[in-house]
Amino acid sequence: MVKTPPPPRIVRNEPMKDFLHNNPDVIGIKVTNKLVIVTRKDNSIEKYNLADDAQAKAFKEKYGELPAPPPPPLPPKEKSLSLS
């Protein structure tokens, strides 16, 4: 069987889209504290404890850098009150 090479790594300044493009077998990741949960397209789940150096290294070797978190939401706009 001929193995297809992975797509070239790209950077578009959209960290999650870049991560998913660079890891086409992944459909999503969840990061809580130091635990990373990777959901793959075959519905398998992989967990990595980033506080453990060996697991952090295994994650980085397999998937690359962890994507940066999205920016926080903007604060709500203040409504001006008119006194009538």
Quick structural gist:
With 84 residues, this protein is α+β, with helices and mostly antiparallel strands. Helices cover 23% and strands 21% of the residues. It has helices at 15-22, 53-63; strands at residues 26-32, 35-40, 45-49.
How would you describe the overall organization of this protein?
- The structure is a single chain.
- The protein has 84 residues and is of the alpha+beta class.
- Helix content is 23%, strand content 21%.
- It is built from 2 helices and 3 strands.
- It has helices at 15-22, 53-63; strands at residues 26-32, 35-40, 45-49.
- It has a 3-stranded antiparallel beta sheet with strand order 1-2-3, with helices on one face.
- It is elongated.
- The mean pLDDT is 85.
Sheet with most strands: 3 strands, antiparallel
Strand content: 15-25%
Class per helix and strand makeup: alpha+beta
Enumerate the spans where pLDDT stays under 50 for 5 or more consecutive residues.
none
Sequence of secondary-structure elements:
HEEEH
What is the mean predicted local confidence, pLDDT? 85
> Could you tell me the radius of gyration in angstroms?
19 Å
Name the shape in a single word: elongated
Oligomer: single chain
Q: How many separate helices?
A: 2
